[in-house]
Each structure stands twice: as C-alpha cells, then as structure tokens.
Amino acid sequence: MTRKIYAIKVHLEHAVGISGFGENGLPMNPQHFYGAIEAGGTKINCAIGNGPDSLVAETRIPTTTPAETIAAILAFFAAHQTRYPMQAIGIASFGPVDLNPRSPTYGYITSTPKPGWANVDLRGAIKRAFDVPIGFDTDVNGAALGEYRWGAAQGLDTFIYLTVGTGIGGGGMIGGKLMHGLVHPEMGHIRIPHDHQRDPFAGACPYHGDCLEGLATGPAMEKRWGTRAEYLPLDHPAWDLEAYYLALAMHNFVCMLSPQRIIIGGGVGSHPNILPRVRQHTQTLLNGYINAPDITQHMDQFIVAPGLGDHAGVLGAIALAISAESAKINLG
Ligand code: ZN
Which domains are assigned to the chain? Predict the structure, then answer.
C-alpha cells in the first residue's frame, strides 16, 4: 500500500509539470476542483478535490430520507463553492440506477428495496443546484474508474471491481469502457453452487434466496452464524466458506469476461482472512484450465485489494466528474 501511494504522488507531480492535463486526459491543474458523491445505502461520502493527494474537503452524511440526505449534500457543496469552484460533479451511486442518457429516468435510483429511495432523481437534484457536467454511474463502476486512473487497474483495459460488504456489487471495464449494457451488471446476483449439507443457510437475497449476494454478504454471514462478521475469530469456518463462495464467483467472472485483474473491496472483502483464501480456492477451482501466467503463477497480483484503499469510491466519483468534464457530457 505504501509503495502504491508513493507511486501516485510521483505520477501527479510529474504530470503537473507538463501541462494542465496528464495521462488519460486527467486534469492536473491544482485550481480545478471536482465534486464527488459516493452514495451508499447507509452513508454518503462527499468530497471536493482533483485526485488522491488533493482532497480539499470531505464529509460523511448518513443516508436517511432522500429529501434530508440530498439537502445535506447540497449544503456541503454550497458551503465550499466560493473557495473551491467545481468544474464538474461525479456521482457513484448504489442502485439499481438508470444509466441510459436517453431514458426519461436517467440518473434515477430505480428499484432499490431501500425504503424511500426507489425512483429518486438523484442526478437531477444535483444538476438543478449546480449547473456543471455531472458524471453518473454505479458505485462500483465509479470505484473501478478511480482504480483505473490512480490505483490497482492502471494500464489495464479489462478488469473487474467487486465490493463485498452489506451488499455485493461488481463493475469494471471491458476494452477500456465501463461496463453498462442493457442496465448495468449485477454481479452480486449470479447463481453459484450451494452445497446444502455444508451450508444449510437458505440465503438472504429477497429476490433470489441463495444467489451470491444471498449467501456471501456481511448480513448473510451474520444471519448464518449468529454473530456479526467482524466478531468472528480468524480461525472460524465462516471465513473459508465465505472465501469459497467468492472464489466460485471468481471462477465465473474469469471464464466469462477474461479480466486482466479482479479488485475486491468492501468491508468483508477487505478482511485480512479473505483475499489469500479466495486466491487459493480460485486456483483450485480453475484447475489449471486458464493457461495464463497471471493466474497460474501470479495469482497474488491477479486478485488484489483496491490500490486506493477506503478512498476508491469517493476518488472514483472524482474520476467520473473528470470524465464528464473531459467529454463535455452535459445532458441537461
Ligand atoms: Zn439476488
């Protein structure tokens, strides 16, 4: 982690010396500020800045009612707008969200089971208050873009960012473009084999029961074992089962999308017991079939933690803002 942060600093200083825009069209002018909204189901992280070393303001807002929460977001940005005028704002949101710019509900949070948040025009509320380009995407695609710009996915064009916490979500890039498609991927809801003898827990997804999210989120672990995941001891069988479920997902993702790397973040995903076991199980499950050294020899660099650590989400929102400004996407 220390090494990666250092590398980011060098990258920034180098780029600032050349011009206002660095690699990937990344604005490096220290006077350019961007707003970031990382919208999660329990909290919303907001920040202003232009990269990993330049967050000039940050706040954390509890996700309560839409009206109260959005008012608090707008108040945060308004309080800083004179000193740090924002060129664009990026929103990386929990979902499902409508990402189709031609849709009448573009920028809405759509069918979320979170009370009060279904059919909320999150992007529109921000756009009406601050008439700047707005980048809008899923929380995981935002984090993926942040990792692509500054973190563990630099130099790649096809990779996955998976978060494993209170929910499971996945995004990333294929061929250098963020994954969108018909709606957006819902990697947490794939079906994986469920051995009912080893694990009689029925699963907790309200839609599918024992899909990946139903079996492997933090709340699923708590329901299965009767203890919050963070209180389970390191040698508890919960961890190996959890890693095995995630490795089944890795197997599917590797075979289906051929990613060059998979980044796993989130509260459960960042537990020290998880990544080493996921790598081991993934290797065993693939059984030498994918004949690529990145998998057969360098699994520790293939399934990795976010290079931006806990800041992947909010920096991802900054990256979305930068992309929106660069592309001059201002769809009104
Ligand atoms: Zn599901």
Answer: 3-143+311-331 (3.30.420.40), 153-305 (3.30.420.40)
